[in-house]
Amino acid sequence: MEIQNKATRINLFNFSTPQMRAFHMSWFAFFLCFFAWFGIAPLMKVVRAEMHLTQEQVGWCIIGSVSITVIARLFIGWLCDQIGPRLAYTWLLVLGSLPVMGIGFAHDYTTFLIFRIAIGAIGASFVITQYHTSIMFAPNCVGTANATSAGWGNLGGGVTQIMMPLIFTMFIGVLGFSESMGWRASMFLAGLVCALTGIAYYFLTQDAPEGNFKDLRAAGKLPEKKQQKGLFWNACKDHRVWALFVIYGACFGIELTINNIAALYFLDYFDYFKKMDTVEAIKMAGLFAGMFGLMNIFARTLGGAFGDRFGQKWGLSGRVKWLFIVIFCEGIALMVFSQMSVLAMALPALIVFSLFVQMSEGATYSVVPFINKKSLGAVSGIVGAGGNAGAVSAGFLFKTQAINWPTALFILGAIVTSCAFLTFLVRFTEETEEEARVAVDTAVTLKAGEKELAASMGQ
């Protein structure tokens, strides 16, 4: 049985339908999770000085921040299939806010690392966002819906680079906090907002267009939980899932890595910032680092939208071809950025690189909903976990003192370029291609009918 009454278009200013409420609440919840997840990154210069952290310890913090998310994403995809995205998001936001607020009690490297690892669990929010929009939107626009909701959520990674230094400065300059108390209060505030959003998600959304999973199962419109056993393992047996796992590690994993290191990278490798005092340097580095994440406001949407266009013209294989193009270009752009030593050249290179990173993410999740519809949560979770597995792997390059960070970025760029060729493993049967073509044509026809109806009513 398949979810019915999916939306055939995205009407951004409509908050009355369950589809659009889910769309807006899911991207906003993911935005806040991303904001809290990487809120400490632009303040690491203060934390590093206060706790006397070495480069290796900073590297372990980078790895720790994304490591537990691998497990959390695998689990949360299964949980969405069981209890629905509404309850899954509510619990994740409320429970995930605790370590975000709790990191303010860290007093040394060990306690800081423990909280940093625990905060990473809220990164599983991405899977719920993609799951919720996937079951709310029809095949003709699901790639765009997935890409936009995730992209606007990822925007939190850019906004936090800009806003957290400003919030930190407010606590110091306006409220008179010390630097030590300032970063702690900033993180507490981020956690509190996450908890409140979790409560709002429970009351403002529903699992599917026709209602919540519990009610749909009672009405016989969804399989019972016991009938869904084995779906996770079916997803695990599909080699295409693991190809996308690695590919997503090569795009979202790289984005997570850049979010973690960008501010410190600018501060340590560009002379422009060394002439400023600490607070001013942190604000400026955060502003420039934030440019990378701010591209999410449209770049990931482009990746999904072009995926939908390629899909309408060339079928599911067209979506995969588009994914190859953007992943390959991402790797080249990263290698170019890594060789920039002058800030005026580094920033444009960073923006171009960011464009391809986020389009690659959108392109990946324009393919994911078509891999295995019965195991959508499992597939979304596994592929999503690949992003964090990629970030964990990349983190080891920044932990060692044997190579500098520009060299580490160049190596990553070469690896990403190679990963593009894994798209050749993502193939679909003719039967699946035909089923997707029919679904897209049906959705397009329905969308056209809705427009005609709206136009006639307007007359």
From TrEMBL:
Residues 22-431 form the Major facilitator superfamily (MFS) profile domain. The keyword Transmembrane applies. Keywords: Membrane, Nitrate assimilation, Transmembrane, Transmembrane helix. GO terms for molecular function: nitrate transmembrane transporter activity. One of its GO terms (biological process) is nitrate assimilation. Its main location: membrane. The keyword Protease does not apply. The chain crosses the membrane at residues 25-46, 58-76, 88-106, 113-132, 152-175, 187-204, 241-267, 279-302, 322-355, 376-397, 403-426. One of its GO terms (cellular component) is membrane. InterPro entries: MFS, MFS_dom, MFS_trans_sf, NO3_transporter. It is found in: Membrane. Pfam families: MFS_1. It is a multi-pass membrane protein. Belongs to the major facilitator superfamily. Nitrate/nitrite porter (TC 2.A.1.8) family. This is Putative nitrate transporter NarT. It comes from Gimesia algae.
